[in-house]
Amino acid sequence: MEVKQPLIASVLAMTFAMALPAQAEIKTQRLAGVDYSVGHTLAQNLQPLVGKRVTVHLLSGETLTGTVKAVNEDLLHLEKLERRDFFDALIRVRDISAIETRFLKPVR
Fold first, then answer.
1. What confidence score (pLDDT) does residue 107 get?
2. Residue 15 falls within a domain, yes or no?
3. pTM for this predicted structure
4. Which whole-number Å values give the CA distances from 95 to 25, 50, 53, 77, in the listed order?
């Protein structure tokens, strides 16, 4: 019986090792000029993102992804909308519930 326990333990260890995917370390670099500050308004957080791609979630539940062309305290102009060729959007900042943008990029 003592021989079976180490064998079973070895088989279980090998099974768990094969089941876990190999985790390759992905090196990333922080994008310059991209950051959020909870001390700023939503419009102030959007201003440094001019020229960058963002996803905007609206209070209505709609989501738009595009490039920030311009922003002020009242309006956000998104251009090059994803899945809407040749369309731009003018969005009231007060209608935005959340924004997403990429902060890191992979380094090769």
1. 79
2. no
3. 0.68
4. 39, 19, 19, 13
